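Need a sequence for this fold. Nothing fancy.
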């Protein structure tokens, strides 16, 4: 059993599967991928979590927290870029783990990503609902509390949260070309709003608000980094679109790195201006810190525009997260680790429509009936764990297949992957203990599913239920890939 569960899958096997008739349409380039990444990265982090991190953890040193989180993400992004260029297949970290570390670790990563995306989608949708309800109230159309709050928060159902997930699910099912076009428009609006805040707030920075600069010490800075790490979740979603990219060897690394660099620069500037405009303790309990800061200096119209931008920002995050989740489930199903319904491609739209629909229904139920605190807690730890495994996979594959052609190479291996593992490990350690316990419970549940279903249906492990057609897919393995096999 041990040899089977750690059996790797060759790069050629993954690529040959994508070339079968009925694959997904290749329509994305560097620009579309970069916008996809920005669309998922800039959202909840910049519009919601900046205030929480400044007031409760980092103070004005929030800038350093963003830098620390960015370093962790940059090291991971370089690892992702090497894999994405070498393995232009949907599935992101799951696929990379399968190639380098074997099926068991691929399942662990896939299970982590399911946790990350599903709970993040619910959390973002609930945040979207809050902004939407606020705008409607300001326009004189206050929505009933029963229809905008979960049962645990004094309502009956969070209807706007469910509605936006339904809309975004429909857009994703219609096709990646349509999803990308909608996302590009939304991201453009969002970037204009962020730049507007920078322009309006720069002249109202008071250096006195930056003192004391590090009120909670280095412990607070690292805790703040672990909290605002949510702000960077999204660059990995770029790699989930690999099978829909026109020139993946060049476009995927560019899209991953460009989206992360652009967002990091914006985050550092915004966090510096934000804490310079208003004393950091004033952000305590503020769910919309960017709009709040503009209100405090008299820009009420600017606060209204930022609220609209937040709506756009959170919409694009939902669009990309639903996109990424459906592609991960699609690849896991194709490998036999999940039921075949997740691997179905719609004949007309060339998208994993059933997978998108199932995810839409589940996350809509989560967003409609659970409070935001419950659904958001586990997102960061699942992502950090996946990043660590991908970094380890880079080191392993450099040893196992050193001669494999690499269109993009992560620099300074093994130093950069080791730094990614160390930084992500520190951020996991700084998360609340209850989050760590819940994550362990999630992993144990995943083990039951793997050994109860996935192991027996796995294609590469020759499970009890893998058919001859699937097993035959393993025959075409090049000499270059032979070293990746056990």
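Here you go.
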């Amino acid at each position: 059993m041990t040899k089977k569960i750690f059996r790797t899958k060759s790069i050629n096997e993954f690529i040959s599967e994508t070339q079968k008739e009925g694959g997904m349409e290749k329509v994305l380039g560097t620009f579309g991928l970069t916008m996809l990444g920005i669309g998922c990265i800039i959202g909840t982090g910049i519009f919601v979590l900046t205030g929480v991190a400044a007031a409760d953890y980092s103070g004005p040193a929030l800038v350093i927290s963003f830098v620390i989180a960015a370093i962790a993400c940059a090291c991971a992004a370089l690892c992702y870029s090497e894999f994405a260029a070498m393995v232009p297949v949907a599935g992101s970290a799951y696929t990379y783990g399968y190639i380098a570390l074997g099926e068991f670790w691929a399942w662990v990563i896939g299970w982590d990503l399911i946790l990350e995306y599903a709970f993040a989608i619910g959390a973002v949708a609930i945040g979207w609902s809050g902004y939407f309800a606020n705008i409607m109230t300001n326009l004189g159309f206050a929505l009933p509390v029963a229809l905008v709050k979960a049962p645990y928060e004094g309502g009956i159902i969070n209807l706007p949260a469910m509605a936006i997930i339904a809309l975004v699910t429909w857009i994703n099912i219609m096709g990646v070309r349509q999803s990308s076009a909608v996302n590009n428009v939304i991201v453009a609006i969002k970037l204009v709003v962020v730049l507007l805040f920078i322009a309006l707030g720069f002249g109202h920075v008071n250096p006195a608000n930056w003192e004391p600069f590090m009120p909670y010490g280095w412990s607070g800075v690292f805790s703040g980094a672990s909290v605002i790490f949510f702000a960077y979740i999204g660059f990995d979603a770029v790699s989930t679109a690999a099978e829909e990219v026109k020139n993946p060897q060049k476009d995927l690394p560019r899209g991953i790195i460009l989206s992360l660099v652009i967002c990091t620069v914006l985050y550092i500037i915004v966090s510096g201006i934000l804490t310079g405009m208003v004393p950091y303790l004033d952000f305590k309990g503020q769910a919309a810190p960017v709009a709040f800061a503009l209100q405090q200096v008299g820009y009420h119209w600017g606060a209204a525009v930022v609220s609209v931008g937040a709506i756009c920002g959170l919409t694009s995050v939902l669009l990309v997260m639903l996109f990424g989740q459906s592609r991960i489930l699609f690849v896991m199903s194709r490998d036999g680790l999940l039921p075949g319904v997740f691997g179905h491609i719609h004949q007309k739209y060339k998208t994993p429509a059933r997978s998108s629909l199932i995810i839409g229904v589940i996350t809509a139920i989560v967003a409609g009936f659970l409070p935001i605190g419950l659904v958001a807690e586990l997102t960061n730890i699942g992502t950090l764990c996946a990043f660590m495994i991908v970094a380890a996979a880079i080191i392993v594959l450099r040893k196992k297949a050193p001669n494999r052609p690499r269109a993009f190479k992560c620099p300074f291996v093994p130093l950069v992957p080791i730094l990614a593992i160390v930084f992500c490990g520190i951020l996991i350690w700084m998360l609340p203990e209850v989050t760590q316990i819940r994550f362990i419970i999630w992993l144990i549940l995943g083990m039951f599913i793997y050994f109860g279903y996935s192991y027996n249906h796995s294609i590469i492990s020759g499970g009890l239920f893998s058919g001859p057609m699937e097993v035959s897919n393993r025959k075409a393995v090049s000499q270059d890939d032979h070293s990746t096999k056990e």
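For context: Residues 27-484 form a domain with the Amino acid/polyamine transporter I fold (CATH 1.20.1740.10).
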